[in-house]
Amino acid sequence: MSKVVVFPGSFDPFTKGHEEIVNRGLEIFDKVIIAIGENSQKNYLFSLESRIQHIASIFEGMENVEIKSFTGLTVDFVSAQNTNLILRGLRNSSDFNFERTIAQMNHEIKDVESVFLMTTPELSAINSSVIRDIKKNGGDISKFVTNDHFLAYN
Ligand code: ADP
Predict the structure, then answer these.
(1) Where does residue 17 rank: exposed (0-12), middle (13-18), buried (19+ CB within 10 A)?
(2) What confidence score (pLDDT) does residue 154 get?
């Protein structure tokens, strides 16, 4: 049976840190579904359409990577993909503390298992919210984001 894992996130924007988690995930799983969560309460810097196009440009031609968006509970989206596996990246202890509660709740609600990959040290400082700040202030984000020209403001 092929193992499908969902990598959920806001990906506003999708960074080289996220990219590495997907590539390493593919060494463990047969398919990674990158799932962009859309929360109506949140203001995103980059439009959903441009985030999808951006991620698609990075994994172009790879059949084992799918890009989808979803609203609502992550566990419901995960079940709808006929899997019970979530992939997340851990940069530091703040990520761990945040992720632990969510992973425990997801397991409690729907028997969803979370698999964590520890970030490569060189990529652990890459943070989407800092990148948004750099971009808003006219800085260059190309060091942190592959194919950044695909990203358009909301
Ligand atoms: P969310 O809003 O769900 O936290 P993000 O887009 O910020 O979504 O992150 C999605 C996942 O990617 C999370 O598991 C996060 O910890 C992980 N992540 C974020 N930045 C990095 C990075 N530089 N290296 C590895 N994992 C990362």
Answers:
(1) buried
(2) 75
